[in-house]
Specification:
With 201 residues, this protein is α+β, with helices and mostly antiparallel strands. Helix content is 50%, strand content 8%. The protein folds into two domains: 2-79, Glutaredoxin, CATH 3.40.30; 83-186, Glutathione S-transferase Yfyf (Class Pi), Chain A, domain 2 (Up-down Bundle), CATH 1.20.1050.10. α4 packs antiparallel against α5, α4 packs parallel to α6 and α5 (123-140) packs across α7 (176-186). It is globular.
């Protein structure tokens, strides 16, 4: 199994976390987006969208972090990650969609503008980021996890970019439930490290 990966990408880190939780060995192929590796013809054959992550599982090639998470969960994980029950599946799916919309367009873009010095306006990403944080806080103030009251793909998908918001110069001071959620995730065994994230294990 190969993971085409960029070390600064929260979307890639979701997959690294999933592979670690499932104890799956893999070959990491570095795609340095800052050096435009994503435009190399060999990578474009794998993903014409020029984005990471991309997973190659013995010739099965998948792009998009949410799709890869579902694939790994159902092929190599237990049903608890992504169950067959329609309601449970929908509860998880709404947070997967949230991760690639509100979390990415708010939290991830705010971070990218700061750390990669992109010439973009921060106002709209920060507005989206606040809405995303408010939504997560609303859920987590009465629940330990985002879906099904247990750790699932919902939490894994939303965690990296939320936990990296300090790199986007955003504050979690007003979000105690999100901070407590971080601690539950960070206490889990076999969690993959990433620069910028706490790693006490």
């Amino acid at each position: 199994m190969k993971l085409y990966d960029f070390k600064h990408s929260g979307n890639c880190h979701k997959i690294r976390m999933m592979l670690a939780f499932l104890n799956i060995e893999y070959e990491r192929v570095d795609i340095d987006l800052l050096k435009k590796d994503q435009l190399h013809p060999d990578f474009v054959k794998l993903n014409p969208l020029h984005k990471v992550p991309v997973l190659d599982d013995g010739g099965v090639v998948l792009r998009d972090s949410a799709a890869i998470l579902i694939y790994l969960a159902r092929k190599y994980g237990k049903e608890e990650w992504y169950p067959d029950d329609p309601l449970a599946m929908a509860e998880i799916q709404q947070w997967l969609s949230f991760s690639v919309n509100e979390v990415f367009n708010g939290l991830a873009i705010s971070r990218a503008i700061i750390i990669f010095k992109r010439d973009m306006d921060l106002d709209e990403p920060r507005r989206i980021a606040k809405d995303a944080l408010d939504s997560m806080e609303h859920r987590l103030k009465d629940h330990d996890w985002l879906a099904l009251d247990r750790f699932t793909l919902a939490d894994l998908a939303c965690y990296p970019y939320t936990a990296l918001i300090h790199e986007g110069e955003l504050s979690l001071e007003a979000y105690p439930a999100i901070r407590a959620w971080f601690k539950r995730i960070e206490a889990m065994p076999n969690r993959a490290p990433m620069r910028g994230l706490p790693f006490p294990n």
